[in-house]
Write a structure and sequence with these properties.
alpha+beta, Nucleoside Triphosphate Pyrophosphohydrolase, 4 helices, globular
Length: about 240
């Protein structure tokens, strides 16, 4: 017997904010460096993802996918490279996301998928990418089982966006995203359904000096929260 379709959240900004996680500590600045993050992935260890994702509907076959979590090395520290999907796409139209997509038969593994999709979507060549490791898989309501592949990105590089899939690319300082004071908790209520999700709104000045909001939410925010949990874990 298949489960009933779960209602989609069409306008996440309109969903009430129940609170933030400002009571939790930010990841210390000394941890948010290439050397420390590289060594933490190299040391391995077992830990549980804080947010494993949504339950896949019984009438849907799960599809493996990968995303790249690109940590760009800038003079002022690490920045996370994100994209905004075009508005006409079938899944997650207009949303903020990591570059990535569905695994293809020719892909050797999850990392190969993330690198190929990143190259196709934003034109980032693999020679600029230093893969560090993977976060636990995250399942989406649209039936994807996503492996987040975390990597350092070494400038200089130029992006070439696939105009069909990607409307724009932008960067957010990693310390902002690794501070739970910026993690908002929303509660979505529908008949017979109550869902929670995170958002991490980022405001950036544009060329005309006006501020613009990039509303990071859903799966992207959840995977960033899992990165926060990983980097917050005590390490020897």
């Amino acid at each position: 017997m298949s489960s009933a379709p779960r209602p989609r959240i069409v306008d996440p900004k309109a969903v009430p904010v129940a609170g933030t996680d400002g009571h939790l500590p930010a990841v210390p600045a000394e941890v948010l460096t290439p050397h420390v993050i590289r060594s933490r992935f190299a040391s391995g260890g077992s830990w549980q993802a804080e947010i494993p994702g949504d339950a896949i509907q019984q009438d849907r076959t799960p599809s493996p996918a990968s995303v790249l979590v690109p940590l760009v090395q800038r003079d002022d520290g690490l920045h996370v490279l994100l994209t905004r999907r075009t508005d006409h796409l079938h899944d997650h139209a207009g949303q903020i996301s990591f570059p990535g997509g569905r695994q293809e038969p020719e892909d050797e593994d999850e990392t190969a998928t993330a690198l190929r999709e990143t190259r196709e979507e934003i034109g980032l060549d693999s020679r600029h990418v230093e893969v560090l490791g993977r976060l636990p898989v995250y399942t989406t309501i649209t039936r994807f089982v996503v492996t987040p592949v975390v990597a350092l990105v070494h400038p200089p590089f130029e992006l070439q966006l696939d105009a069909f899939e990607v409307a724009e690319a932008f960067e957010v300082p990693l310390p902002f995203l690794m501070n739970p004071a910026h993690h908002q908790r929303h509660v979505f209520e529908a008949p017979g359904v109550s869902r929670q999700f995170l958002s991490m709104p980022w405001h950036a000045a544009q060329a005309d000096s006006r501020m613009r909001e990039f509303f990071i939410w859903g799966a992207t925010a959840a995977m960033l929260r899992n990165l926060y949990a990983f980097l917050s874990e005590p390490h020897a």
